[in-house]
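Let us practice reading a record.
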Amino acid sequence: MKNINTAALNLVKAAMTALLILSCISFSGCGKTNETDDVDTDKVGTLIQWLKDEDSSVRQMAVEQMGEIKDARTVEPLIAALLDNDRSVRSSAAEALGEIKDASAAKPLIAALKDNNSTVRGSAAGALGEIGAPAVDPLIAALKDNDSRVRRYAAAALGKIRDARAVGPLITTLKDVDSSARNAAARALGKLNDTRAVEPLIAALKDDDDAVRRDTAGALGEIKDARAVEHLIAALKDNNSTVRWCAAWALGEIKDTRAIGPLIEALEDDDNGVRREAMEAMEKIEEADGNQRW
C-alpha cells in the first residue's frame, strides 16, 4: 500500500509540474524575447493558488516548487503553510523556507519547533540553521523555551550556524534539566570550536547521561584544547563503551603524548570499537610527535 501511495504521489507531482510549465508558457506569448519576469510572476501566482487546493498532495507540490524557485514573494504563503493541517505540507514548507533563507521566517519557524510532528520540528530546525545569522537571536531566546524539544532543536540549529554569540547561552544549556537539550548543546559547542566552552564541557564529562558524556568527549576532541587531556584520559574508564570510544577519538585529535600510556591500556578494552579507536589515536599522536613510543 505504501508503494502504491508513493507512486500515486509521484504521478501527481509529474502532472502538476507539467501543468505549471504549460500555465507559465501560455502567459508568456510566442514572440517575446524578454519575458522572464512575466513567466516568473505567473509561476509564483500559480503556486500560491495551489496552496489553497483541497488536495494535500497538490499543496505539498506547491511548497516544494516554491523552495526550488526561491522567490521572496513566496515567503508569506510558505509561513502560512506552516499551519497546514497536513504534516507533509508543513514539513515541506519549513524546508522551502530554509532554501529561501529569508530572515522574516525565523520566528514562525521557531514556533514550528513546537509542532506535534517530529518531522516538522526537524525540518523547522534545519531551516533555521540555513537562515543563519538572522536567526541567532531568536534561537538563543528559544533555548529558554518551556518545551524541551524546542530547546534541543534550537541548540542544534545554533551549532549549524556557528555564530560566537551562541557560546554563552549554549554553555548555560549544558545544565538544562533535559538530557537531550544538554546533548544538543554539547554537540553544538564542539561545532563552534570556541575555547570558552572547554571548562564547562570538562564538567559535562561527569553528566549522568551516557549520550551527553559521549558527545561532550567528541566536542572536546573538536576543540582540541590540551586542558581536556587528563579528563579525557579518565573518560577512557567510563562504564559506557561509546563514551570510552569518543574519549579515545578525542585524544587522537588533540595529539598530546600524555595520552599514550592510557591508550595502550585501552587496547585491552572489552569493546572492539574502543580498542580500534585507541590504536588509531596512538597512530595520530605518533605521526604528530615524530617518535614511536610503544
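A brief commentary: The chain has a mean pLDDT of 89.
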